[in-house]
Amino acid sequence: MFVVEDEAMLFFMAEDMLCDLGSVEVRHASRLPEALAFLEHERPDVAMLDVNLAGQPVYPVADRLAAANIPFIFATGYGAAGIPQRFGARPVVQKPFTQDMLGEALASALGPDRAPG
């Protein structure tokens, strides 16, 4: 699991939830260049992307994940309305979210045959 989130507290909360949902390893990036560099060398099973990273949109990371057929979800305080149309089919979890909400979004991204992890 790869989490791109610029707020440390939110990352730690999400990490705890993801571990409770069955994730064995949670990798993290807090800035756009760091996330893109990670994807140069790693292929996560699934990702959760904060839409706004210190004022920069996360969409270059989303484009790279989509091109590699890696499932991902968006996490945002603004809801799905702010997501570009090209990502309209991607699950969005609105902040603040619960573990159940996160699990449902991940299950949607992963499809019926895969569990979050």
What does this 3D model show about the protein?
This protein has a 5-stranded parallel β-sheet with strand order 2-1-3-6-7, sandwiched between helices. Strands 4-5 form a two-stranded antiparallel ribbon. The relative contact order is 0.19. The chain is built from 4 helices and 7 strands. Strand 1, helix 1 (8-20) and strand 2 (27-29) form a beta-alpha-beta unit. The protein has helices at residues 8-20, 32-41, 59-67, 99-110, and strands at 2-4, 27-29, 47-50, 52-53, 56-57, 72-76, 92-94. Helices cover 38% and strands 19% of the residues. It has a single domain, classed as Rossmann fold (3-Layer(aba) Sandwich), CATH 3.40.50.2300. Helix 2 (32-41) packs parallel to helix 3. By secondary structure, it is an alpha/beta fold.
